[in-house]
User: Fold these one by one.
Assistant:
Number 1:
Amino acid sequence: MRTAIYLENGLYFEAEGFGAEGTAVGEIVFNTSMTGYQEIITDPSYAGQFIVFTATEIGNVGVNDDDNESRGAYTKGIIVRSYQEGYSNFRGQEPLSAFLKRKGILGICEADTRALTQMIRDEGAMMMIASTEIFDKNELATILKASPRIEEINYIREVSTTDAYHHSRGAWNEKLHCYNEPCPVKKIIAIDFGAKLNILNELTAVGLGVEVVPHTVSADEIIARFDAGEIGGVFLSNGPGDPMVLKDEVATIKRLLAHKIPMFGICLGHQLLSIAHDKPTYKLKFGHHGGNHPVKNLATGMVEITAQNHNYNVPDDIVEIAEITHINLFDNSIEGVRYKDEPVFSVQYHPESSPGPHESKYLFKQFADMVRG
């Protein structure tokens, strides 16, 4: 299937398609993870983006029902060097192409992903358009120019749950190849900005009963339930897009902070806590996307290899109100903070892995200890 690609820097090329047909506009980023393409594609934080995979072979293990990181898939498309329709894995249930077609996601292969990755590193993340219908460069450029940029769209409304629900699944049991049954001791609320399912699994794995609520939840409701002893804390999830556009969500978090409710934030939740403390985030040149980012824990001196997926970061002057707990050894950007005189901490990276290393899961136990304490 012939596919045309046009980037806002003027680059036009054609490649082959193996996913859904149609035309899509989004932001192009690259991911350096060597495994876990299904988890990456179904991560809601990629809403509105095209993912360039630096791993050369994609599709070789197929897809299955257990490895999805959300109930949907919100990325605009994926770009790979070599796609394998035939898969070989005892857990595989269908080829990746069938999954992409069902979810309406473009799949693009036979592209020079090395050159694209180098270009994004040099010029930064940018908007692009891909189409299996339109092959006129000028027409594609016109459509792209008229389309809103990713920072102008509130993708949280698309990926957040609309109704509250209790998460009843535990962590993945690697020996039995199934999910454990959770045994909750203390209940928390998880505000869903696009939460990965494995984050919720890890929260239940440390004894927390997790009620997932929409991003529109009111501060009054949470405060009332906290004061009544019904919940012991609030988790702020990951999610897509520019955190600076989420004015209502920041206002809610500010009220929770004023009430001294224990909170833990990951990725977007980490960024929203910074903004709620009047420390605006900034956009990185090409973001951190991959499963091989070294992060130093400043309290222990240990280096954790982490999974990351974010385009935005908290500012250096957050040190005025928070203790820096983790830093990225690639670029020295801030990866974790603990706020002074508040039962609140957060990290920019993904301690739940899926895919990625498992070295940072201790953070979920820290949150559970804070909630129970």
Note: The chain has a mean pLDDT of 97.
Number 2:
Amino acid sequence: MPLSKNAYQTERHAGVLLHISSLPSKGYIGDLGKSAYRMVDQLAEMGVSVWQTLPINMPHADNSPYQCISAFAGNTELISLELLAEQDMLDQGDIEAFYQGDIHNKNILLTHAYETFIAKHNQQQFIAFCEQEATWLDDYALFVTIRNEHHQQSWSDWPEQFKKRDAEAIQSIRLMLSKEIAIIQFSQYIFFSQWQAFKTYATEKKVNLFGDIPIFVAHDSAEVWANPQLFKLDDNNNMTVVAGVPPDYFSETGQRWGNPHYAWETMAEDGYAWWVARLAKQNELFDLVRIDHFRGLQAAWEIQSDEETAINGQWVKAPGEALLAAIHQALPDVHLVAEDLGIITPEVDDLRLNYEMPGMKILQFAFGGDDSNPYLPSHIETNSVVYTGTHDNDTTLGWYNTAQENEKSHFHTLITQDAPEMPQALIDMAFATKAYLAVVPLQDILGLDSDSRMNTPGTIVDNWQWRFEWPELTAEHSEAFKASVQRAKRFH
């Protein structure tokens, strides 16, 4: 059964955090092929009912899933080439050439697949997909086509007629590059077809998919280019203010993300239709959806665009109540989780609780400070998702090896052990809390150290690259984790 949004009232669940890109594969990142299905089987065997991923949209060149060129389009690098070969759209020799480095661009193979598809396959479902997704797909395909023609330049640097979407210029390029546009549409069709097949399999195995959306979108994205009126831009469609967060646990100068802020008053005029459509798409793809930086729906940190750091910003109110009301009215079954880390005010808590949204609790944050620390296990409420750590944290073993002595001492006192087995001890602590869902990154199940960290906030190199290989996930790891799930009565 899918995990209902009120499941926390009656059931306890265990989850694993693992992005699709971290799966084993022959390519440079994981994909939606055999490893994805094998992982579903592995999770089901361990009694895990939730698989949490990072955002699956199309990223920029840095591969950050939190800075994407579309809030709707899927990451076509996650397409399984083997599955296309099974559908007789690709030749196995071309796939092997790609893996060996003779073909350097996956889009070349997707072009081959498109040409074979047009020549040999029934196109009815593809046509129906393009019609159904036209509200975002038409703009996205055109955006990527123009972007490719201008060597991946940001749209803000395009010639004026394309930057400002001159009607005559847009019509001309639609005609001139119609095949290129169709290939991009086809690639999205393949991505979503593979994802839905994967989701169907996960549902059959009683594994719920848990997605994640960044609250903001990148300035260099199809949505901002196509709908500049929805964002705080000047007359030349440049950003006047950018998003980020003030100084916090992760950075002394805060984080200057550089995303545009929403023009909330304009969005309100059509009942926040863009946001409703965005969540509707996520609700199709996932059983649960985390809203990253949820506090930005109550108030967001605005930084003048010419500021180099996030220090000199200010909190600006956002219409979270009206927005969530519109989302829940349109999508009454949506299961949202609030990423409520950082500077959280009573107003942010009230907004979350008004919609019974679970918040997040990170155990790596629990052992500094005093007994009022909200991340301490004794303070974690049922309506919570508890983590040993997330993609933004060090691995639990890495955290423990570098933790301050007062943190270690506090942790040892709580578990009544001076030499705990790590990371197992923190996993068991997470599972023992009242939280209806406890999520553990795969790195912690494998007992990996800081070398396997996924992301270090505030940095732009060596992130989003971690992958594992199947021999690392031994029978001993699986049995130990399964036993932890069972002891905590989270087995499904």
Note: The two ends are 10 Å apart (CA to CA).
